[in-house]
Design a protein that fits this description.
about 300 residues; Alpha-Beta Plaits; transmembrane helix; FtsX_ECD
Length: about 300
């Protein structure tokens, strides 16, 4: 009988405040989805950093004929200078591997990279491609000594640390991650306020019933339980909608980004998505329950 009464009261409360309940569900869904997206972006950025930072190299571009780099003075690198540079690089501390890329290989890589831009790919010629050394470091963070040792050497046109190039991309992703989390926090607070208002209206509409229940000796928990369950159900439904949105985001956004970057090994998996969904649903339900309790303690005299 007690269980039937509680569930009937929950149904009455949800039905009486249907529009507010729908507003709570939508707000919880959007807030938890944004929070989940922020967590997924955080996991994705971490995986991409580990993946790409492990692969980044120091590129040493050598002089070509009529090069406009001041250090080349319009002269191409000689065979002797190339051999001397290779020996010097191999002798530097912290260097794990050294790869030499000739003009033919550089041209092929250029064609592959710009295969979608036919005009640019067709305009390039083999002799336009610079030769280079690709240096893989034991510790990618310790790149400064290598760059300082090679800059200004005979035959060297330019030394580039690829990490500096992709760091700008990761900086943009970090800003996107923080923005998603900030928006999620704002929406979560809005959901808590909506839940509080819903519970307050429900308690006001049923103040006569709750007064009678108190007179017959019902406990505070027994009186509060239907209102708390209303918030919990709304949070749970909102969490389910958020889970659907996160699954769609994984398929349409994260998988597409992985294909664009040609690195499926650096994308989050379904186990990560399941963990995020579980966490956001728990957070959504807990927020709804806490908001209900706080509102009842303030507005419901039991």
């Amino acid at each position: 009988m007690r269980a039937n009464f509680i569930f009937s009261e929950v149904w009455i409360g949800l039905r009486r405040n249907l529009t507010m309940t729908i507003a709570v569900i939508i707000t919880v869904a959007v807030g938890m989805a944004m929070l989940g997206v922020g967590l997924m972006i955080n996991a994705q950025v971490g995986m991409m950093k580990d993946y790409w930072y492990d692969k980044v190299e120091v590129s040493v571009f050598l002089c070509t004929k009529n090069s406009d780099m001041p250090s080349c003075k319009g002269k191409a690198v000689t065979q002797g200078q190339t051999q001397a540079l290779k020996q010097q690089i191999e002798g530097l501390p912290g260097v794990e591997q050294v790869f030499y890329e000739d003009q033919a290989t550089a041209y092929k890589n250029f064609q592959d990279a710009y295969s979608n831009q036919k005009a640019l790919a067709d305009a390039a010629k083999v002799e336009d491609m610079p030769t280079s050394f690709r240096i893989k470091l034991e510790n990618p963070d310790n790149y400064q000594p290598v760059i300082q040792a090679l800059q200004g050497q005979p035959g060297v046109a330019q030394v580039i640390n690829q990490r500096d190039l992709i760091s700008q991309f990761f900086t943009m992703l970090d800003k996107l991650r923080y923005a998603a989390v900030v928006v999620a926090v704002v929406l979560v607070l809005a959901a808590a306020l909506l839940i509080g208002n819903t519970v307050r209206l429900s308690a006001f509409n049923r103040r006569r019933e709750t007064g009678i229940m108190r007179l017959v000796g019902a406990s505070n928990l027994y009186i509060q339980l239907p209102f708390v369950m209303e918030g919990m159900i709304a949070g749970l439904i909102g969490g389910v909608f958020a889970a659907v949105m996160l699954i769609v985001t994984k398929v349409l956004l994260f998988d597409e980004v992985a294909q664009f970057l040609s690195s499926t090994a650096a994308t989050i998996g379904w186990d990560d998505v399941a963990s995020v969904i579980t966490l956001t649903m728990i957070i959504g339900v807990v927020i709804c329950v806490l908001a209900s309790f706080v509102t009842l303690r303030r507005y419901l005299r039991v």
